[in-house]
C-alpha cells in the first residue's frame, strides 16, 4: 500500500493493527462512550460464584462503560507516533457537547499529554 493514503476504520477493525498517525474523532460523551452504555451504567451486575473467588465478585465485563473504556484503550494504542483526539463543542443546532469521560480521565492523570489547539477553544 502507498504511504500517502488514509484508512478509515472502526475501533474493532483496528485491533492488532498500528499506524504512524491515528485520529479518533467524536471523543464526546454520549458518543464515546455511547449513550446506551451510559444509560446501562447504573444497572447492577449480579454477583457470580466462581471457584477460589469471593462469591460477591462482580464480572466487570458486564459493565458496558468498562467495555467501551477497553475499546478506547485499543484505539489510542494503535498510534506509533501521533495520536489526535478530537471532540465537538456543540451540535449543529448549538446545543453544548461535552468531552468524553475517557478524555477527562487521561487529562486528570497526565495533563501534559494534551496539546490543545487554541483555535478550537
Q: Can you name the CATH architecture? A: 2-Layer Sandwich
Helical residues, percent: 25-40%
Q: Count of DSSP helices?
A: 4
User: What's the average pLDDT?
Assistant: 81
Main structural class: alpha+beta
Q: Gap between N and C termini, in Å?
A: 37 Å
List keywords for this structure.
121 residues, alpha+beta, Double Stranded RNA Binding Domain, two-stranded parallel sheet, 4 helices, 2 strands
How would you sum up this structure, described in words?
With 121 residues, the protein is α+β, with helices and mostly antiparallel strands. It has one domain (11-120): Double Stranded RNA Binding Domain. Helix content is 26%, strand content 11%. The protein has a two-stranded parallel ribbon with strand order 1-2. The relative contact order is 0.20.
Summarize the structure.
The protein is an alpha+beta fold and 121 residues long. Helix content is 26%, strand content 11%. Strands 1-2 form a two-stranded parallel sheet.
List the helices and strands and how they pair.
Layout: H1 11-14, E1 19-24, H2 35-40, H3 64-76, E2 79-85, H4 101-109
Parallel strand pairs: 1-2
